[in-house]
Design brief:
Shape: elongated
CATH superfamily of the largest domain: Fumarase/aspartase (Central domain)
Number of domains: 2
Helix content: 55-70%
Order of helices and strands: EHEHHEHHEEHEEHHHHHHHHEEHHHHHHH
Distance between the termini: 29 Å
Radius of gyration: 26 Å
CATH class of the largest domain: Mainly Alpha
Number of strands: 9
CATH architecture of the largest domain: Up-down Bundle
Structural class: mainly alpha
Largest sheet: 3 strands, antiparallel
Length: about 500
């Protein structure tokens, strides 16, 4: 069933379109709103009103009145002049997300474009015509100007489009979907590029993936706790009840379910050890703080998915045009920086658990989990890799949102750098996924040394699944493909499915 753009776009809808190629249309109600806003703009032009971006230049040229005979040329020139991004192109899913989000924002009916223009964006999306959009060049203030200009070039027969792995000129791509290049009307070029859709698409994918990441991090932590014969007592509900942060409560409940019915735990119930290392006994507090931060990020995103981020706003139902700042990316910039910190912390604590398992002075296990230490190095260098990625994350987690550099001759004197923040957060997510994959491989190896003792039922299930496809490390071998295999399971949610077949749905 097609998704119809109207009022409420959910994250699940976004992912269905960007990753699963769900088709999208414009609802009749949205089309009516859009038509009314367009009629209002046409009336402004007919009455020769001076309105920013409609009958004036842009940015520092806001005070330059444009003759009515030049308004179409003005909008055409805007797209051409602003499409000066650089760097590697955004991945296809990010581009699809941008097309959807721009259409959604315009469909809310306060931008003043024609219905046909939104339908053309949706035609590109539905036919898999993906504009080539360089990933660098946005400062995240007047929206993602350069990325969105590149995205919209095909509408005027310019730019490049990727279709089924083939690069096409923009005009040819439009012909293939049965459209001629548009001659943009007043306001339309500005409406197409004033918005936060590049950073929002990046952040939306991150939010969706982070939902799996936090649960995978808990599975990894539970495996490490079993491999290290650590206590389960820190997950007693009395602990989080006395410091009632929601994330910590959820993590503690998940850990209790993940660790239920463990032979390994019963084997050391009367041991002399008093306390475990922080990376083991503070899982609810550390992982929970990341969960709470990511929940805030999700709340920001949910609002942005359904926001009008254009300027000026055509508030036709109140008979006014307002030049303001909904295009500014600061809400997303701060959210992206917070997401970066939250995800980086999951990698930080994961790497410490890896060290706990590989260091024989801490683990009680063979050094570096090697069967024949010396002749074989075991998982020694996996900790180096994890440490390198964690250190890289620390550099990337420096906030982008506290930076600003004036643009447009100081007319735009405070910018958000939100797209930088979202791109960095995406890199941190990828690094963290690898660190957690290394922790899971290390914990699986550690669990092998406890046989015949069995871990909890849930950890047994995931350990059995891993060993069905990745053998015990009895001698040194090429491990990169195995790390990548586990990463793929984490990203797809496959390990979560294995665990939830035992525990039921994790929170």
């Amino acid at each position: 069933m097609n998704l119809l753009l109207d009022q409420n776009l959910a994250l699940s809808d976004f992912i269905a379109v960007s990753r699963e190629n769900r088709k999208v249309g414009l609802s009749p109600i949205a089309a009516q709103r859009v038509a009314k806003a367009r009629a209002y703009v046409d009336d402004l032009v007919d009455r020769d009103q001076v309105v920013y971006g409609i009958t004036t230049g842009f940015g520092k040229f806001a005070n330059v009145r444009i003759d009515n005979t030049k308004l179409r040329e003005l909008q055409h020139n805007l797209l051409l002049s602003h499409a000066i991004g650089v760097g590697d192109p955004f991945p296809r899913e990010i581009v699809r997300g941008m097309l959807l989000l721009r259409a959604q924002s315009l469909a809310l009916g306060y931008s003043g474009v024609r219905v046909e223009l939104i339908e053309a964006l949706l035609d590109m999306l539905n036919h898999g015509m993906h504009p080539v959009i360089p990933s660098q060049g946005s400062v995240g203030a007047s929206g993602d100007l350069a990325p969105l200009a590149h995205m919209c070039l095909p509408l005027i027969g310019e730019g490049e489009v990727e279709h089924d792995g083939q690069l096409l000129p923009g005009a040819e791509a439009m012909q293939r979907i049965g459209r001629q290049p548009f001659e943009l009307e007043a306001k339309e070029g500005l409406a197409l590029i004033n918005g936060t859709q590049a950073m929002t698409s990046l952040l939306a994918h991150l939010c969706f993936d982070a939902n799996n990441l936090v649960r995978n991090a808990e599975i990894a932590a539970a495996m490490s706790i079993e491999a290290l014969k650590a206590s389960h007592k820190p997950f007693d509900p009395a602990v989080t009840r006395l410091r009632a942060h929601p994330g910590a409560i959820r993590v503690s409940e998940n850990m209790t379910r993940l660790l239920a019915d463990s032979e390994i735990e019963r084997s050391h119930a009367q041991c002399s050890k008093v306390q475990d290392a922080y990376s083991l006994r503070t899982v609810p507090q550390v992982h929970g703080a990341s969960r709470d931060a990511l929940q805030f990020v999700h709340s920001v995103l949910a609002r942005e998915l359904n926001s009008v981020t254009d300027n000026p706003l055509i508030v036709w139902d109140e008979d006014k045009v307002i030049s303001a700042g909904n295009f500014h990316g600061q809400p997303l910039a701060i959210a992206a920086d917070l997401a970066s910190i939250a995800i980086a912390e999951l990698a930080n604590i994961s790497e410490r658990r890896i060290e706990q398992m590989l260091n024989p002075a801490l683990s009680g296990l063979p050094a570096f989990l090697a069967e024949q230490g010396g002749l074989h190095s075991g998982l020694m260098i996996s900790q180096y890799t994890a440490a390198a990625l964690v250190s890289e994350n620390k550099v990337l987690a420096h906030p982008a949102s506290v930076d600003s550099i004036p643009t447009s001759a100081n007319q735009e004197d405070h910018v958000s750098m939100g797209t930088h923040g979202c791109r960095k957060a995406r890199s941190i997510y990828q690094n963290t996924l690898t660190v957690i994959a290394i922790e899971i491989l290390s914990a699986a190896q550690g669990l092998d040394f406890h046989k015949p003792l069995q871990p909890s039922k849930a950890i047994q299930a995931v350990h059995h699944f891993i060993r069905s496809q990745v053998q015990h490390l009895d001698r040194d071998r090429y491990l990169k493909p195995e790390v990548e295999k586990v990463r793929a399971w984490l990203q797809s949610g496959q390990l979560i499915e294995v665990v939830e077949s035992v525990t039921g749905k994790l929170d």
